[in-house]
TrEMBL record:
InterPro entries xrefs: Acyl-CoA_dehydrogenase (IPR050741), Acyl-CoA_Oxase/DH_mid-dom (IPR006091), Acyl-CoA_Oxase/DH_mid-dom_sf (IPR046373), AcylCo_DH-like_C (IPR036250), AcylCo_DH/oxidase_C (IPR009075), AcylCoA_DH/ox_N (IPR013786), AcylCoA_DH/ox_N_sf (IPR037069), AcylCoA_DH/oxidase_NM_dom_sf (IPR009100)
GO BP terms, alphabetized: fatty acid beta-oxidation using acyl-CoA dehydrogenase
Acyl-CoA dehydrogenase/oxidase N-terminal domain location: 11-120
Domain of life: Bacteria
One GO CC term, this protein: cytoplasm
UniProt keywords, alphabetically: FAD, Flavoprotein, Oxidoreductase
Subunit structure, as described in the record: Homodimer.
All residue ranges annotated as the Acyl-CoA oxidase/dehydrogenase middle domain in the record: 124-219
Swiss-Prot/TrEMBL cofactor(s): FAD
Species whose genome carries this gene: Halomonas huangheensis
Protein name: Acyl-CoA dehydrogenase
Domain (Acyl-CoA dehydrogenase/oxidase C-terminal): residue spans on this chain: 231-380
Family membership: Belongs to the acyl-CoA dehydrogenase family.
GO molecular function terms attached to this record: acyl-CoA dehydrogenase activity; flavin adenine dinucleotide binding
Length: 409
């Protein structure tokens, strides 16, 4: 089946079913290996990624594949049923692939995009810094001095996803003084250049998942490796955030659905029947609230994605969606753990690991607090400026402002 020629909803649903079957039959039974020692995890990951490629399930929303985010959405939920799904299906490289495709020159396409689309390279995004404020780009200190056809890159980045295995990084650096609007650039930096090093691996709630702190010490990068034009980094960051938050939300929603399925399975199990769980009002309340959170977040995500595909999406829609999905994931996994009891806190179920991922979801791709504050300000400004209580109308007429731009890759 040619993914790029898909148009019917039946074709997309069939692809989603194939993805779901792969996750349930191939990935889920091997999650303990994928969470194990690095050598075991890497071998398992590479094997499963190869099998996904053989079955035509790898890179489904890379450039040239599924044509709309709406089509990909139903597939992405199935990829996200396992924490390890997005990496195995190449989905965690999608955002970099689109940014390189849209804004890279011929050299960037040849040296970085083509190997990425072939599965021969791994990308990472390096924005966050240990001494800056994540939601305030003006505090970024990494610098790239331009001269003699090269950039000299100096600075530190941290909590960079896939840093342990990335072939190259898209680094946000200051290339000019003065106005932030034209002072930042995105630079594609191979990981093997002299002066580049991984300072330390960083854990997330006690677990290591490839995030690290990076050092760039007078790294010389060809000036042709600037993504887009010099000084357009802030605009590219904002563009990246919209698609990135929607992609993350789709995968998190799939993880929330899996937790809900586990909750229901436990209630219907022999042990659940012995405890008469389905007769308990609080259990029914948890089931209702979990289901409500998922379908509400899914409806919001689908509506926002339709607007995104129509180039009519704004920051408020995207940021509200991201917060809604992260909250849904946290609520559902917490309810499932409560139903499982002590077993849910152990490695006997995937819930303890998903719980860590759910907590991180409130930080990754923009902290919920920063997004809520920014959206709340915009909504209030809209009503004050336009004198309307129709929130939908206010959103559509408020000009885009300075939204939070935190994204630890």
């Amino acid at each position: 089946m040619d993914i790029s020629q898909m148009h019917s909803s039946a074709d997309v649903k069939a692809l989603a079913r194939r993805t779901r079957a792969f996750v349930d039959s191939c990935i889920v039974p091997r999650e303990s290996e994928l969470a194990g020692p690095s050598e075991v995890a890497e071998a398992c990951h590479n094997e499963l990624m190869g099998r996904a490629r053989e079955q035509g399930l790898w890179g489904l929303f890379h450039p040239g594949h599924l044509s709309s985010l709406q089509d990909y959405l139903v597939v992405a939920e199935q990829e996200g049923r396992s924490e390890y799904g997005p990496a195995i299906f190449g989905a965690d490289l999608t955002l970099d692939a689109h940014m390189l495709s849209r804004h890279g020159n011929a050299e960037i396409h040849r040296e970085f995009l083509t190997p990425l689309l072939r599965g021969e390279a791994v990308s990472a995004y390096a924005m966050s810094e240990p001494d800056s404020i994540g939601s305030v780009p003006a505090t970024l200190t990494t610098r790239a001095a331009i001269g003699d056809g090269y950039l000299r890159l100096d600075g530190r980045k941290w909590f960079i996803c896939r840093a342990d295995r990335a072939s190259f990084f898209t680094v946000v650096a200051r290339t000019a003084q003065g106005d932030l609007a034209d002072g930042l650039s995105m630079i594609v930096v191979p990981s093997g250049l002299p002066g580049f090093s991984v300072a330390r691996e960083l854990d997330v709630l006690g677990s290591f998942h490839g995030q690290a702190e990076l050092v760039f010490n007078s790294v010389r990068v060809p000036s042709t490796h600037i993504l887009g034009q010099p000084g357009t980094g802030l605009a590219l960051m904002q563009e990246r955030l919209q698609l990135g938050r929607l992609l993350r939300s789709a995968h998190w929603l799939g993880l929330a659905q899996r937790c809900f399925d586990l909750l229901c399975s436990r209630v219907a199990s022999i042990r659940g029947k012995q405890a008469c769980l389905s007769d308990k009002q609080l259990v029914r309340l948890r089931a209702f609230e979990s289901y409500h959170a998922i379908v509400a977040a899914r409806g919001l995500l689908r509506d926002t994605v339709r607007q995104f595909d129509a180039s009519a999406c704004n920051d408020i829609d995207v940021n509200v969606t991201k917060v809604a999905v992260s909250r849904a994931l946290s609520l559902v996994v917490d309810s499932a753990i409560q139903i499982y009891g002590a077993e849910g806190l152990s490695h006997l179920t995937p819930l303890s690991s998903i719980y860590r991922a759910a907590r991180a979801a409130h930080i990754l791709d923009g902290t919920d607090d920063a997004l809520i504050s920014a959206v709340g300000r915009r909504l209030l400004e809209g009503e004050l400026n336009h004198g309307s209580k129709d929130v939908g109308w206010s959103i559509s007429t408020v000009p885009h402002g300075d939204m939070a731009t935190r994204t630890p890759s």
